């Protein structure tokens, strides 16, 4: 179960909850580093060029990006805010890749001014905007084109991205990708380095990735034969699955690298193409299992013969995933792990939404108001997708490494919530 994969003791988590209050995200930095190294070190076993870019959408903060930088990762950003965080964290801009299906002129200007390593071009509108920005600034930039390979990976519909009917990227089947290539080959200011493909997120089997590699190389072969285009870089995205509950059985992270490298090698050799630099973009698998959220139990309501609702001081405002994707989590009560299971309860969030539930059926020892509930595997897309719904301030985030803890995102106050409000009298 996920709690067995988390290394910070219940005793320390209890102390942290007392010191920093709840709700509280606690990240195990050692685990983040191990995950990053699992990818980087596995690539190093091969004689090829690679980049492992942390997909900062999973959890972006200055401290987090400093850790990613220390671990020699490149960085995927999607917005002005994520790029700004990278700048504040002192990220080497050459290692930053800019994504997004609706990049604003401002983010493109920021990217060009800071000379980021690469822009992943998503559509024709953006291409024209980028050309304009480059012309205005008299600069050039490296780019990849994002292609949708027409792969339907096994995951929730909302986190699928590689299928033909997608808002992301240039479609291979309809010829849009080839049209983009034609426009960008030998372009004056946009220097096309290769292609990008990301098939979706929380994917456990490797078949989808292997199929995507095949599709990408089929296209590259065609483009080589027709235009002598050779990709220097092939970015295969992220999406590697993690364990949320005991029903999830993820592969070791190294396995994804082995699979991708061997798929690239065999596709390249089948098509007599050079082996390009391989880039990947893991987000969830770097931080997901490396954090927990600690809540305090408040109201408890039992409906006889129906259900016992146990409300905690957080919910969809710090973890929208159950409401958005029916995502499932495991949790325990701190300091009661030695007590026998007595009941099955539903853990409810505190927002005014019936769907604001964190866990529908959780087996626990007798649960009481004031207990501390720890929910596992909340490190990815938790704080990152947090909202101010009902004007609940955002939680605090603490990093723990070698037994030492450090606050890395302060808890918001209610005063923070009205900071931008203007009076209307
Ligand atoms: C383009 C792109 N790269 C990388 C990621 C990171 O995915 P994950 O967090 O599943 O590794 C995503 C999210 O699905 C994405 O859209
Ligand atoms: N936010 C989603 C995944 C989308 C990843 C970005 N394309 C999740 O929590 O699972």
Automatic annotation (TrEMBL):
Pyridoxal 5'-phosphate binds at residues 239, 281-284, 381. Coiled coil: none annotated. CDD domains: PLPDE_III_DapDC (cd06828). Residues 30-287 form the Orn/DAP/Arg decarboxylase 2 N-terminal domain. GO terms for molecular function: diaminopimelate decarboxylase activity. Its cofactor is pyridoxal 5'-phosphate. Keywords: Amino-acid biosynthesis, Decarboxylase, Lyase, Lysine biosynthesis, Pyridoxal phosphate. Its EC number is 4.1.1.20. Residues 25-379 form the Orn/DAP/Arg decarboxylase 2 C-terminal domain. It catalyses: meso-2,6-diaminopimelate + H(+) = L-lysine + CO2. InterPro entries: Ala_racemase/Decarboxylase_C, DAP_deCOOHase_LysA, De-COase2_C, De-COase2_N, Orn/DAP/Arg_de-COase, PLP-binding_barrel. It is an enzyme of class 4 (lyase). Substrate binds at residues 284, 321, 325, 353, 381. Belongs to the Orn/Lys/Arg decarboxylase class-II family. LysA subfamily. NCBIfam families: lysA. Specifically catalyzes the decarboxylation of meso-diaminopimelate (meso-DAP) to L-lysine. HAMAP family: LysA. Homodimer. This is Diaminopimelate decarboxylase. It comes from Alkalibacillus flavidus.
